[in-house]
Amino acid sequence: MMNRREALSRVAIIMGGTVLGAEAFLSGCKTATTGVNFTAETISLLDEVAETILPATKTPGAKEAKVGEFMKVMVNDCYETKDQKIFMEGIEKLDAASKKMNNKTFMESDATQRHNLLVALDKEAKDYQKAAKPEDPKHYFSMMKELTLTGYFTSEVGATKALRYVAVPGKFDGSAPYVKGEKAWATS
Amino acid sequence: MADQQYDAIVVGSGISGGWAAKELTEKGLKVLMLERGRNIEHIKDYVNANKESWDYPHRGGRTQKMIEDYPVLKRDYPLNETNLDYWAVDKESPYVETKRFDWFRGYHVGGRSLMWGRQSYRWSDLDFEANGKEGVGVDWPVRYKEIAPWYDYVEKFAGISGNRDGLDVLPDGQFLPAMDLTCVEKDVAARLKDAYKGTRHLIIGRTANITVPHGGRPGCQFRNKCWLGCPFGGYFSTQSSTLPAAMATGNLTLRPFSIVTKVLYDKDKKRATGVEVLDAETNKTIEYKAKIIFLNASTLNSTWILMNSATDVWEGGLGSSSDALGKNLMDHHLGIGAGGIVEGYEDKYQFGRRANGFYIPRYRNVGDDKRDYLRGFGYQGSGMRQNWRHEVAEFSIGGEFKDAMTEPGIWSVGMGGFGEMLPDPTNKVTLDKNVKDKWGLNVLNIDCELKDNEKKMRKDIIADAQEMLEKAGVKYVQAREGDGTPGRGIHEMGTARMGRDPKTSVLNGNNQVWDAPNVFVTDGAFMASASCVNPSLTYMAFTARAAEFAVSELKKGNL
To answer: Which residue of chain A comes nearest to B401, CA vs CA?
Structure first.
C-alpha cells in the first residue's frame, strides 16, 4: 500500500499529449546563477548520500548511475541562487547532523549509520514540508532526495536495469497482463 | 528577373502552408514557398529524435539560462531541453502584451507542424451555425456539407487514426485504425455511458499519428517522442507529408530565411502582384512576383503581413476596409480539469507509449442542455498506470524503498478541458507604433483576455470533470484550477475572419481577401469562431478547398 495522499499529489492531470510531464519542469525559477563550486570530495559525498537513498540491491545503486555528478550539473545549471545556497549549506548541515547522531562525519560512517541518519533527515524534511507554505524554501534533504530519484531513474542504469525500457515499442496495448514483481516502465 | 516570377507564392511552411504548396504544385502551378526561419530536413535534422533521457545533461528539463533567454516560452511546458531548437527565440521575436498572451511560435520550415499535438477533429454544424444563430460575430459563410468532402480529402492524405463513434457533435471521418484505450479508460467510458444515459462519451483521441503504414511512411512506433520530429514519419507534418508531395511535382521552390514584410498591391487592378521579402541572412530586400498569394504565416503573422501591406490605399493595411482586421482573436482556454486514482486492475499494465489520449466530446449546450453561457468544451485526458514518480510511504529511503519504486504504481486518470472562446472585437492585435524587432519592423501588440462567457464555462469545466470522474468510480478526485491565460492553447485563431459581407469580414467564404481576390488567407486567421476542438484539421480542409478554387479561378481568368 502506498500513501494515497502522496500518490494523489503526483497524479498527472494530462491536458493533451504534449503537456504530459509538464509540471516537473515548471518550478518557479527567476534569476540566473553564477555557479557553485563542487569539489571532487563534494561529489563523492553526494554519491554516497544518493547510494544510501537508492543502494545497490539486486539492481545497481545510485552511485553507479553517477548521481553525484548529476546533482552538480542540476544545482549549477537549473537551481536559482537561493536554492543553490540551501543545497550547499545542506551538505554542511548533513555532516553536522551525522556528527551529532553518530559522532562521525557522513563519509566516516558505516552503511547502517548512514542509513539511520538519512531516515531521520527524511522524516525531518517531510515534517518540515508538511508545515511549510508554498513560498517557503525547500528543505535541503528534499532537494537531495528528489535529485537522487530523478537522476537515478532517468539514467541509463536506472531506466534499463532497475526499470524496464523499450526504445521502440512498435505497438500500444492498454490492457497488457501484469504479474506482480515485474518492473515498471521507465517512461510512459 | 525571370527567376523571381512564380504562378503562386505560399508564405509560411507550417500545416496550412504545406497543404497550400502541395495542392497548388500538384495542380501544375510553379510555387515559391517562403519560410522566415531555417530549414529542417525530414529525419536528417531531427537531431534529438533518437536520444534517451540520459543523453540530456538535464534529463530534458530547463536551465536558468534557458529561462532567461525565453521569457515567454518559460511560461508553460514548451520550454524544455529536448526540442528547444524548434521554438522561436523569444528575445529575437518580441511582441507587446497589453494583456498577457502566451505566444509560442515555431520559426523554421515545417513551423509548428513538427511540434503540434496532432489531435484532429471535424467541426459539425453545431459549430458552423452557432455565430449566425446566436448573433455572435459574423455568420460562417460555410456549412458542414460544403467542407465535409474536404475533410475526407485531407484525412485520407494526412492519415488520421480514430474510431467511428457515430456522434453528431463530432462527425466521423476517414480513419486509420484507432489506438487502444487502456483498461481503466474503458472502465471509465462504460461507467460514464451508464451514469449519463448515453449523452456523454469517452472515446479514443483522433490523432494524426498513423497506426498502419500510410503514404510511404512506416508509421507510429509508440515511442511518444513526436515533438522531436519522427524518423518513422509516424505523424503528419509538413516534412513527413505535404512537402515531399509538393517537391515530387518538380514545381516547388522552397526558400528559408525569407521574412515576408508585405504583400505588393496594384491599386488600379485591385490585385496583389507579389510579396516583399527581407532576407534574414543578408538583410537584403527582394521582390517576388506571382498571380496568387497564399498567406499561411500563422494566424497573427498573416495578419501582421496584411497590416503592413497596401498602406498607401488603406492606412490599416490590406483587408482593413472592413475594420475587422486584427480583431476577434481567439484561442482555446484550458489548464483546468480533474484527476484521481482508479483502484484495481493490478494484473494489467500498459505496453508502449501512446502519444494520444482519450477525448470527451462536447455535451454542454447540445440538444436540450442549456447553460448560462454559450458554446461548450471537450476534455482530453488519459488513464495510465504510474511509474517511479509515485511515492511509497512505508519506506523513506534504502533498498526496500528503491525496490518498491521499481514496480508499477496505481492507475491514475486525469483530464483537462478545452473550452471555446467567443469572438470578441475587443480581443485584438494592432501594429505597435513604438516597438521594433531586430530587423526594424514594428511588432504586434496583443490585447486579449478571457471574458465572462469563458469564465462561466470554466466553472463547469472543473465541476463537470470532478462529477464525471466521481460517477465513474474514480477515487480521491481532485480539481485542477488554472487561470487559462490565452495563447497557451497554441490555437491562435481569428483576426482576419471570413464572412458573407465585405463590411464586416476580411475574407470571403473562399478565403479570398475581399479587397484583393488573388490573396488567400488559409491559416487560423480566417476563423470566424473557434469551436472547442483542435483546429488544424479544419485549416487543412479549408486550405485544400481554397487552393482548388484559386486554380479554377486562375484558369477562368478571374484572378
So the answer is: A54
